[in-house]
User: Fold this.
Amino acid sequence: MKKILLGNEAIVRGALNAGVSFVSGYPGCPAAEIGDEFVKIGKDYGVYAEWSTNEKVALEAAIGASFSGLKSLVNMKSFGINVCSDSLFPLAYTGTKAPMVIVVADVPSCWSSAQSEQDSRGYAYLSHIPVLEPADPQECYEFIKLGFEISEKFNIPVILRTTTRVNHQKMIVELEEPHFAKATRGDFVKNPHQFCTMPPRTLEMKKELLEKIKKIQQFAEKSKINKVDRRRASINLGIITSGVAYLHVKEALEEMGLDLPILKLGFFYPLPENKIRNFIKGLKKVLIIEELDGYLEKEIKILAGEINPKIEIFGKNILSEIGELDTEKITLALSKITGKKVQLFKSKNIVVPRRYPRLCKGCPHLFTFSLLKKLVPQGVIFGGDIGCYMIAGYPPHDIQDYIFSMGAGLGISHGVKKSTNQKVVTLMGDGTFFHAGIPALINTVYNKSNPLLIVLDNRITAMTGHQTNPGIGKTGSGELTEELKIDQICQACGVKNIKVIDPINVDELEATINEFLVKPEVSVIICKRICALLAKRQVAANKE
Amino acid sequence: MKNFNIIITGVGGQGLITLISVINQAAFIEGKDVRSSELHGLSQREGSVETHVKFGKKVYSPLVYRGQADLIMGLEILEGLRAVNRVGSQTKFLVNNYFLPFEDSPRKEKVLDDLKKNLGKNLFLVNASEICQQNLQNEVVSGIYLLGYGISKKLIPLKKESVLKVIKEVMPQKYWDLNIKAFNLAYDN
Assistant:
């Protein structure tokens, strides 16, 4: 059957086809639609699916499933792998019991990311976990199935590393009907020899892991996902590329009327070194076209030194490490190397002011932001965090003094309070509070500083597309569950000054902000009001 | 034949993703190869959004090579103007005469003036939002109206029948009637 699919839809269909039983993750753009789809349709296929509290517990949940014999999938955006890395590394040591694939979606050009332009492929070197890089939805579908196969064959988790232009690319995909999960209940068979990373066993495990990687490298050498295109007699110049850049390369060659051999690598780690050696052996020049960091280039330089030291290697010297690649950038690079003239595109130079994202009509944050703006003349410092309320850093609000990673706003605000005599207000959404905010709050109380934390509780994880969180009273798949109260958690963490306020009561909110801002201890105001967009959707849904 | 390249620009929340799905599916049932690239996330919160659709015999990159767009569909005039820097002399512009201003935006007259000055006869300015609001009491279907207009004026090489068929394939049933009306309203005029 052929169907137009988004990269993320192809990942879901591929995982279903591979017989996945257990899906966990944390929503982040551009990966969120994978989890969204699984929490929606999982039950129809006998698949358990959850939105976890953060990526670390999401991975740990899947580890438990794997140890119990269930095939699992974990989904997250780039920064999620930072959060879960603490458990990811020992997982490489223990290995999996039932197969596991971890989808990590990077964002070259930071289309939907604030904190950094992270190239998550680097985790392969830290963790020794195989990494596959698909170029488009068809490859998403095939590589995720292959990921499960590799995981099953070698008892190791496999990372499927995607980028925005893969996750949010649509194309016609050839696929099979999905089927019901192979198993819905597992059985945990005790095996501390495999599941406990305790020295001296830890070092044995490392040895086993490195041996596994050698075997997987042999597998990669034979794998069809490392493929050579158009191998012609021409030995002047070859191209090595991976991910979506491969598609831009194909277009660039067609545009320029060039016919060059291409080695397209589906495996990022371990690399099929022999295949690369064979490819570069007879070439005079090679151009390595990879988005973001020059990892492949460094590896290939070492291999070239062994087999073809005279080869000229081009890569990050003519293609930037910053921003995503496209046909134009690749065409220019090829033109520089081949000397083949290309018509430079002369663009008009119309200057149009930036249209910043803004809070929706009726957004509850609007009330809070307008009150906070009044504090600016007092020299108050404003800590930001990850969520729709990052818009506090855009006009007309312009009140965000720092923003880092999930939950970091409060952690940094504590440090600022400890270091200065300035007043600090720090913002945090309900999703972020549960994800990584609570340890920062405990640290703030424990080590006695006093920023004012304003939790913007809009009753949903809004920015990534309205996913549930532990404050809602519903699980991802819509089951009723315990509704965790943020004010009660703050109380249990030792916060003395806590108030829950509907931010439309601006007078009460303003009076409380002014009162709490001079308290000697940390204070928390929970601005609790449902996301305006969600409220509108609920009204519409109730009408039907 | 060369592939047909469309860049759709607009403001988050204007229904760009649905419009892409319709164009993709219509090209698909006509037997064409098709790829598109869309952006989700914070940009959807009323920020600028730019999406690419390409169809034809064989499509590789999901992004339109700068200067090679055959058509820009601007769902808003300022976002249409923003795309002027990406176009070649062959690029046609199909723009909804609809303005969503913000604090620092130029005046509407200036935006329209710049569009006309830079595009000349390649500009097709259509009152899609106004017409949809008047006739259907809903302006969110202005993208489908533009599509109907583009197909009837042969600016987009897709068939009317394909679009009418795929609206039912990619949208929930409750929106079929509204979207078919919006399409026909443009096509039949």
Q: What stands out?
A: Chain B touches chain A through 48 residues (CB under 8 Å).
